[in-house]
Predict the structure.
Amino acid sequence: MRQDSKMPAEAREFATAGPSPAGAPGAAVSIRGLRHAYGELRTVDGLDIEAAAHEVLGLVGPSGCGKSTLLELVSGLLEPAGGAIEVGGAEEARGRLARCAYMPQRDLLLPWFSAIDNAALALRNGGAGRSEARREARALFERFGLAGFEGARAAELSGGMRQRVAFLRTLLSGKPVLALDEPFASLDAITRAEMQEWLAGALSADPRTVLLVTHDVEEALYLSDRVVVLSPRPARIVRELRAPAPRAPDRDASVTSPEFVTAREHAMRALRGGPK
Amino acid sequence: MTFRWGWWAVRRWGLPLALLAALVGAWQVAATTGAIADALRLEDFLVPAPSEIASSLWENRSLLAENAWVTLKEVLLGFACALVAGLSFAVALHLSETLRRAAYPLLVASQTIPIIVIAPILVVWFGYGIGPKLGIVALICFFPITVNTLDGLRSVDPDAIKMMRTLDASRGQVLWRVEAPTALPFAFSGAKIAVAVAVIGAVFGEWAGSDSGLGHLMLQDNAQLETARMFAAVLVLSAMAIALFGLLALAERRIVDWR
């Protein structure tokens, strides 16, 4: 229905075309002087954040610092009280909504649809027929280790699989910017590590601009190119860190390397307001 | 496998069937010994025993079936009208806050109008045909279907709607892919309540004025003191309601297969 003129066909095509970073859609995100409040409660007050096209930007902060609000603002689900947000050149909410796919914390798989129909939801909303949408989604199911589970209902999938389907659903929207809100918070530690590796692989195969909100410093440093540490409400940037080896193939080696451990210490201290 | 199922059926239905058998047995004894009639100072033939009702059921099977068919048509058509109107109205109330604020209190207030009073007026307006019965059945069924469906539509997870918006869903797509499936079990609950009371509505309608149907037959039997046949008609009527309820429950299990 709501076809955005600035979202050309190649954006959608990309989702099916497989790994082709050259033709990947990329959109920079720019947040300037952002202010937002719920009534009297100021959640964001004068925040500036830039993310380059295809950059994975980790946003780490204490609970309730307005990270989720920030993602909803960027995705165009909310309008800010003040300041400007630009996503791939679009400033108004409609344009941001057309360029961002927001993945909420819970997987929100619809229980009446099979896994593949859940993943293909954005394609169906975009007007694709059922079989066409399923065909496109099936290719990703095979690539991302979900082959054989196309017909499963959400209740029949493990937590990790549900999260994968939810991520494919986000990916298949073909949008250049992904706003991921604590995508693995509900998983146990082992599954979470597996899922981080899986997401790293998925993003290498299919690069997008990603805003990754998490309260897990290790997750942010492993998956992101750059990590921004936010203060408690109203959110300000306390510290910015470069990740030592973003999305390294061997996760366990990467997260235990000395550089990683140092970066993690810096992030933790910044997060807890200790000495810099 | 069959043994297991048999055991399950005994555990599920054993107690209610035993209670039913005990009640019917007690009634049989009390009626045949004339205990009830004596206590009520009545003639014996006014208090039929279950065995007499059963034989009346058999002897009058074609008469009962003919009239049951008339009532069934009234119930089904009236229920179908209420289903279409109730679902549409629920969606309209859901989509328009103004309409909901305006119409919802009236909808609730309309339930205080006794149908039994409306029935004769409808007969005056629409005659002795099937029309007034349809109207009454539909009026009775409309409320539970509408209210339950509306509750279902409003119980949707707001995060799921955000998720759909970020996946470029139109209002219609949100309604069809998220809100309608969420509301479906609620709509079924409403429909099950509706179908159970629909038969009562049909009987009211027939009492107000008709020349056939189980309600009409009951009225005649009452006047002619054909008590056994009257009870038989009641039995057929309950069987009809139970069957319709069961069919809906079955359809719900088949359609709402994700719960």
Observations:
- Residues 1-47 of chain B form one domain.
- The radius of gyration of chain B is 23 Å.
- The interface with chain A takes residues 157, 159-160, 162-170, 172-173, 177-178, 181, 258-259 of chain B (CB under 8 Å).
